[in-house]
């Protein structure tokens, strides 16, 4: 499946190990697995990575950074907690997030649960300059694995690379405690290159391929990723639109994941679609359904549902996404599915027919 979301009611350390190895990562109080997302004005493939720790060695530059910052700062490793200073760091840094932004640090880590009810065993590394908290990172403990969740740092200390520093401290802690795998999350690969590529500077990296196997990171670009499938389909669509003089607009749709866990609406389910025309507050669109390998033509409109509106309000698009993307800002449902077909020419013919009918 392209998108999966799971909210565990209990979670043992060994179970977390298995989920991490299966490509899952924590999203607030849930755990998710997805193959692609909207980012940096385009669609990118999600690539899960991990570092094997059994013979892990820091590079010379990382050893230098660790030594330099340990002289300048002190750090504490302890059970995670939230206070006003950490919340302030979160609020100052969330404008730099790439896609979605939780309203506050508590929601980011725990959703609307009490922290005591969270099934994850979350720790933090707090970095201090004297009495001043200048960085904090949060990570979850499994049985043999640890998973990095979030790093925050004071922008006044930018020159000290505190985001990288806390990541290295997490690895150092994991090695000292005998953990075998460190999961820094994922990178995103698109036709613009990598996002979150700072993670690729780590040693002993593996990536999880499209079949679920872990391979050396050196092989990552030999794969045929989801964004490449979509790019090929997009080019084919654009070629035929140009041939038949069909005006259209390519639209990023960051809310595509809603279709995979809300079943009482027939929702737009892909991260990019083509807007062809509008009538009576409805849009005529064409989307390519990856899992079904079909093209869908239909009329869509915004979902007017209090529950979904609350979801969107609580998890807003980041400022960075808004300024780099042409996107539709509300979840969409189908009012009418006109055609689903494996044939792109057939889909184009139906669009031409509908445009004649619309006048």
TrEMBL record:
InterPro entries: Acyl_CoA_acyltransferase, N-end_Aminoacyl_Trfase_C. This is Arginine-tRNA-protein transferase. The keyword S-adenosyl-L-methionine does not apply. The lineage of its organism: Bacteria, Pseudomonadati, Bacteroidota, Cytophagia, Cytophagales. Residues 87-205 form the N-end rule aminoacyl transferase C-terminal domain. It comes from Thermoflexibacter ruber. Keywords: Transferase. Pfam families: ATE_C. One of its GO terms (molecular function) is arginyl-tRNA--protein transferase activity. The keyword Transferase applies.
């Amino acid at each position: 499946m392209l998108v999966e979301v799971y909210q565990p009611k209990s979670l043992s350390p060994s179970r977390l190990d298995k989920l991490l190895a299966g490509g899952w990562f924590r999203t607030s109080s849930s755990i998710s697995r997805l193959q692609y997302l909207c980012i940096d004005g385009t669609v990118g493939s999600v690539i899960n990575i991990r570092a094997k720790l059994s013979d892990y060695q820091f590079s010379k530059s990382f050893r230098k950074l660790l030594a330099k910052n340990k002289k300048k700062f002190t750090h504490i490793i302890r059970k995670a907690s939230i206070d006003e200073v950490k919340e302030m760091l979160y609020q100052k840094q969330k404008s730099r997030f790439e896609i979605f932004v939780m309203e506050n640090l508590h929601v980011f880590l725990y959703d609307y649960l009490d922290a005591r009810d969270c099934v994850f065993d979350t720790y933090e590394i707090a970095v201090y300059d004297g009495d001043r908290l200048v960085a904090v990172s949060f990570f979850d403990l499994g049985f043999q694995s640890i998973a990095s969740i979030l790093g925050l740092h004071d922008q006044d200390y930018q020159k000290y690379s505190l985001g990288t520093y806390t990541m290295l401290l997490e690895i150092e802690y994991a090695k000292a405690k005998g953990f075998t795998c460190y999961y820094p999350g994922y990178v995103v690969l698109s036709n613009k290159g990598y996002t979150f590529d700072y993670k690729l500077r780590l040693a002993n990296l593996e990536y999880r391929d499209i079949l679920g196997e872990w391979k050396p990171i050196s092989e990552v670009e030999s794969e045929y990723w989801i964004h490449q499938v979509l790019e090929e389909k997009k080019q084919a669509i654009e070629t035929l639109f140009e041939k038949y003089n069909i005006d259209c607009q390519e639209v990023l749709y960051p809310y595509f994941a809603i279709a995979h866990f809300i079943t009482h609406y027939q929702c737009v389910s892909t991260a990019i679609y083509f807007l062809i025309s509008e009538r009576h507050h409805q849009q005529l669109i064409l989307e390519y359904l990856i899992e079904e390998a079909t093209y869908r033509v239909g009329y869509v409109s915004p979902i007017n549902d209090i529950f979904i509106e609350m979801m969107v309000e609580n998890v807003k698009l980041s400022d960075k996404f808004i300024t780099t993307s042409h996107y539709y800002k509300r979840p969409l449902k189908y009012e009418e599915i006109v055609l689903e077909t494996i044939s792109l020419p057939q889909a184009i013919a139906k669009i031409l027919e509908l445009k004649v009918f619309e006048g």
